[in-house]
Amino acid sequence: MNYYDFGLCKGLVGAGVKPTLYTCDKTEVTSGLPFNVKITYRRIFGRDPAWRRGLRFLAGSVRALVGARLGRHSLAHFHVFQVGPLELFNILLAKLLLFRVVITAHDVEAFRGEWSFIKSWVYGMADGVIAHNRVSQRELIRVLQVPEYKIHVIPHGNYLGQVGALTAAADARSQLLLPENATVLLFFGQIKEVKGLDLLLGALALVRQSIPEVRLLIAGKMWGKDFAVYQTQIDRLGLASHCISHIRYIAEVEVAAFYSAADLVVLPYKRIYQSGVILMAMSYGKPVLASDLDGMTEVIEDQVTGFLFRSEDVRDLADKLVAVLADKQAMKRVAEQGHDLMQARYGWDHVGRLTAECYRTVTQGRQSKAQRA
Which CATH fold would you assign to the domain 2-157+347-372? Predict the structure, then answer.
C-alpha cells in the first residue's frame, strides 16, 4: 500500500489537508515526506498465531485512533479490502472517539460471503464511502444498501510517481530467462480464479500457431488455490516452453523488469470492479488488452487507450492477441495515449482534491435533504 498511501497523502497536502498516516512496521518510510507517518501496528504479519496477531492489530488501532484524537484530528479514513470483526472494532472505536468516518471500499468482491451482517454495520456507520468507479458505486448501493448520497466516486491514482525506470528489454528478458527475440505477454498481479489465467492459457495455445515465438510471463502470488491447477493446464496444452512463471510475491524493486520485458499486458478477467494492474501498465507506458467488463471500459477506450476483447471468449481473445501483436504502430499509439490518460485523469493531485472535497462534505454535513431523499 506504500504507493497508494503516499500518493494520496501527498495529493491531500496539495489540497490543503494535513494528514497523518497510521500504518504498520512493514511500511518503508523515507525521509522528507510532506506529511506525518506513525508506526502504530507492529508484528501483525508473519507466522505467529492469528489470535496473537489480531490482538496486536487491536492494540495498534487503539494507539492510532487515540493518538489521532489527542493530535486534534477530526476524521478517520480507513482503507478496507475485507470486513470482519477487526474492521468493525476500528469503526466502533472511531465513532466512540467522535471521529467522522470515511471508508475507501477497495475490494467490492468482499461485499459478499461471510460476515455480511458486519459489512452492513460497518458501511452503515460510515459518514462517507469512496468508490473508485461507477461499477463499485452500483455494487455498494445494490449489495450493502449504502445511500447514494454517502458515496463519492474518486479514481484510484496512477503509478507514475512510483514506477521504476524501465530497463532495456534485452536486459530484462535476460534477467527473467526469456528469449531476446520473443513476443512477450505479461499476466501480472495476485492470481485469483476470477482473473482468468485459464482463459489466457487457452488462447495462448491458439496464438502460438500464428506466433511461434510468443511467450507468456506469469508473475504474482497465488490466492485461494495452488498453482498446480494452472500448471496442469500448461502441461496438457503443451505450453511448458511458452510459459515462464514467477509464482510469488513480486518485490517493488523487481516490478520494472517484468514490465520492461513485456510487449503487451493482458488482463483476461472474468469479473472485476477495478484494477490497479491497468493503471500500473499504463503508467509504465505499456499497451493493455483486457476483457470488456464495465470496470475495464471505464478506463479503456478500445483502440484508443487500450484494446478490448469479449469477456470469457477464448477464441476472441486469441484473435485479438494475434491482431494486436501484428500492429506495432497501433500498440505504440495506444501505449502513449494510455500514459497520457494516467497523467490527465488519474494524477494524485486530482485524487487529493476530490478526496479533500469528500472530507469537507463529511465534516461539514453538507448532504442536502434532496440528496438524502
Answer: Rossmann fold (3.40.50)
- Pick from 46, 102, 44: which is nearest to 75 by CA? 102
Task: List Cβ neighbours of 195 (8 Å cut-off, separation of 6 or more).
Answer: 187, 189, 267, 268, 269, 270, 272
Distance CA 42, CA 40 (A): 6
What are the residues whose beta carbons fall under 8 Å from the beta carbon of 96, sequence distance 6 or more?
Answer: none
- 276 in Cβ contact with 156 (< 8 Å): yes
Please state the φ and ψ torsions of residue 55, each to the nearest 5 degrees.
Answer: -65, -40
CB atoms within 10 A of CB 256: 16
**pLDDT, tens digit, for every residue of 211-256?**
999 999 999 999 878 999 999 999 999 999 999 999 999 988 899 9
Distance CA(98)–CA(321), nearest Å, equals 54
- Asked if the domains at 2-157+347-372 and 169-345 fall in one CATH topology, the answer is yes
**What does the block give as the cell for 306?**
487500450
Spell out the domain ranges in the chain: 2-157+347-372, 169-345
- Say which CATH topology domain 169-345 has: Rossmann fold (3.40.50)
* Residue 208, amino acid: R
Q: What is the separation, in whole angstroms, between the first and last Cα of the chain?
A: 36
Q: What is the pLDDT of residues 257-268, one digit of tens each?
A: 999 999 999 999
d(CA 89, CA 323): 52
- Quickly state the pLDDT bin for 308 (edges 50, 70, 90): very high
